[in-house]
Amino acid sequence: MAPGENPFKSARQPRRDPDFYEPGYTDERDTTEVPGGVRLQKVLAQAGVASRRACEEMIGDGRVTVDGQVVRRFGARVDPAKQIIHVDGKRIPTAADLVYFAFNKPIGVVSTMEDPEGRPCLQDYVQELAPRLFHVGRLDTETEGLLLFTNDGELAHRLTHPSYGVKKKYWAKVPGPIPRDLHRVLRKGVELEDGLAKVDEFHIVQEHAQQALVEVVLHEGRKHIVRRLLEETGHRVLDLARIEFGPVKLGRLKPGTVRALTLQEVGDLYAAVGL
């Protein structure tokens, strides 16, 4: 120790008991505090993570990060509209104005918010939910199944951009029987008029008499891509439904109905596109 140095105070780092801290341990400077912001445990509780008391325990256990920094202070104040918060490595939607919905699009509904021809469209089902909603992905008029809605523009963009590789799962009813090597053909790729297309996965769900139900998983979103792939291999699609979009499942959601996504589902969507 240098002559005159205070043994209890350092300009850089406080002294630590060597029985509890590794040699060379340093504290990271916490830059997450927002004067006049909202207490972190309140933000987490309002987002639906857990009760405020349980959220305090999560913070104390080091399970919560704000803008990439672990925050252990119970009184920490944050800006939920601007800062990115993770719990156990999963992002939590904290901005009060952001909403996330799943919709089971019925057959006959156009996948646009408006239709100049006056046909049933998405706006008919979601117009009262929130202003400026984006529909994530498209389904042709004769295809039913899962669509997502949100006003989170960055998430919507990433979910639909092919570079993020978000997979969608479809069930298609086709005439049978199905050749046992069809999965290899579809995975290798089929040349369509707009280029090579291939599936990520293909399975036979059920075969009965002269019909079969098949499962197709792929991450690209070219127009009518599932129908064109199957028809190019000699299997005309009789019925088609999307049952999964990334980590979100259609489940038992009835055609024409909407439900809010769970906190788990939104966090999984963020994770799927690296947010």
Describe what this molecule looks like in 3D.
The protein is an alpha+beta fold and 275 residues long. Helices cover 19% and strands 27% of the residues. The protein contains seven helices and 17 strands. It has helices at 40-46, 52-60, 123-126, 153-160, 182-188, 225-232, 263-272, and strands at residues 38-39, 64-66, 69-70, 77-78, 85-87, 90-92, 100-105, 134-136, 144-150, 168-175, 190-192, 195-197, 201-208, 211-218, 239-245, 248-249, 258-260. The strands form four sheets. Strands 7, 8, 9, 10, 13, 14, 15, 16 and 17 form a nine-stranded mixed β-sheet that branches. Helix 1 packs across helix 2. It is elongated. The mean pLDDT is 87.
List the helices and strands and how they pair.
Blueprint: E1 38-39, H1 40-46, H2 52-60, E2 64-66, E3 69-70, E4 77-78, E5 85-87, E6 90-92, E7 100-105, H3 123-126, E8 134-136, E9 144-150, H4 153-160, E10 168-175, H5 182-188, E11 190-192, E12 195-197, E13 201-208, E14 211-218, H6 225-232, E15 239-245, E16 248-249, E17 258-260, H7 263-272
